[in-house]
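User: Teach me something about this protein's shape.
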Amino acid sequence: MRYLPNGAQMKAADTYTIEKVGIPSLVLMERAALETVRVLKDRGVDFSDTLVVCGSGNNGGDGFAAARILKEYGFCAEVLFVGQDASMSEECRTQKQIAERLGISVFTDFPKKEYTVIIDAVFGVGLSRAIEGRYHTVIEWMNDKKCEKAAIDIPSGICAESGRVLGIAFRADITVSMECVKLGCELFPGKLYAGETVSVPIGIDLSFFEKNKDVCITYDPEDIPLLLPKRAADSHKGDYGKILMITGSKGMAGAAYLSAKAAYAVGAGLVQIYTAEENRTVLQELLPEAIISCYNETAGKPDDKELEKLIQWADVICIGCGLGTSVFASRLLKKTMEILRENGSEEEKLRSCPCIIDADGLNLLSMDMEQLQGVPNVILTPHMKEMSRLINKEIPQIAERRFSVMKEFTEQYQVVCALKDSRTVVMKEGHHPFLNLAGNSAMAKAGSGDVLAGMISGLAAQKTDIFDAVSAGVYFHACGGDEARKKKGSYSVLARDLIDGIGQCLKNAEERL
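Assistant: First, the predicted structure itself:
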């Protein structure tokens, strides 16, 4: 697990390290410059003619220090200073003075020579306004140069919180980030401007983030073995959970199949599919490992006693995949919520039984959000369009403020929510938000969401904390997509291939245990 702070959060950690831990700002700056040069040198960057473009803040100070270190290594390093003398930070002024005393060429007009690499140190993580005027011209000029390009901490012009472009942004081939990759460098479009992102240690105390639950986290492949539920040598299928899948209306057996098979693929013990009678034969043939129970939609309404019996049997419920939005489906969802809300006194596990609502279940829920009231351990997995229906906001509004929108939503309804996108966010009140960085565009196929719902259900059934189940499910799902693309390329991956991919991914992780 690693942190992905935004600009304000990183500045707070920086201040804490300087004021409370006692590491001087100039020491952190020296380390930042040394690590920047080291990473770029390790990547084989040609420093024979280097231009460092510096602003007047501490990011500019990092740049001046990097130019000095490059000169010490025997390279030609020059500085284009584009900041304002009157607004220079104390540390930046000190670094500029040292560079000039050592004979480094510092100028304010655009040079006419060509360079092998340009290092961007104009703006740091604190930028929040649109870039205009001379600064706009400077970044435009930098982008036009035909050479390698690197950014210190964050590409100038990228918002460290949202990843949006603030008027114009530097396009880096590589971004060397101090202590943590910044959130805006992993959200789109910021990711496209940051290029390869590398975090380097400079001494900032990251324990500062532990208590700030607004700081985002992410996973890397080496975390997978730690996320896997434990399996005992003397266990049986009941130890790994019983899942009730209320999925698949007439003609939608595929959604029921994909979600159920995915639950098994991550280790669930037993899956029962409650589906339309028309799906019985095909599901028995496709997935003989599952129990098939059926309803008859022509009856007009669900059999309440049968549904309650099924829910009492289950450790986890998943509802909505391919369910449809008919009156009958609406009644199924409503009755499921009523049972989970009202029957807890009869059997304690009903009160703690996680319920994953996906796809058509979300569309039905959006028509009556009051159904969530009083139901514990609800997990919602909307994509952007479904989220827009749930909260009655347009997609651009959600994308612009996804973290604050998610925070307000999960606090209001006391749910775990996975907002699916190219960068899926998982949030629950009192937990660090999780941002998924794995996965690829090959996964943009029908049925992919059904697989994810099944995987989350399977992990939750194995007594995993529900936030951890959702976060791990999202990450495993994406890693399965990466494995599938290795085998089938970017165009031909089907949702079923994600299940095979996650099988390979988990096998690889298990071998590392």
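Now, about its shape. The longest helix spans residues 466-488. Residues 167 and 506 are 43 Å apart (CA to CA). If you'd like, I can walk through any region in more detail.
User: That's plenty for now, thanks!
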